[in-house]
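Input.
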Amino acid sequence: MSDIRYIKWDYDSNTAIEYERKGECNGCGACCIAVIRFRHLMERDGRDGSDTTDQKGVWNEISRGAARRFWGDFKVEDDVVERCTALSEEKRCNIQLTKHLLCKVWPLAPEHVTPFSECSYEFVEIQRWMINPPQSE
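Output.
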């Protein structure tokens, strides 16, 4: 899935940032044990993202060709542990071929790695631009 683009849309600061994600999953399982909640979603089941944003707050986009999916800003609930039912005792995914899109593309941005010291992914900023440039009169 190396042809995926990772873009963070920050409507609060009117900035978009595209990242390159580097590394491979080291199988630490930390993200499969943590409770990760997205602050706003446009669709009921957030595991496969939304096809649009409400243009408020922060949204993370993954795109592959013309296909685009969005997830609203996230929060890790540190005080809650809720092991994914598909995670084996060896910290391997038991549904590798049928898992949800979010599981396939996680993490989506640098701040998604920060809560998980075991995570082997890192992000490099590729470009940054203003979402809605000021209009000249």
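The two ends are 44 Å apart (CA to CA).
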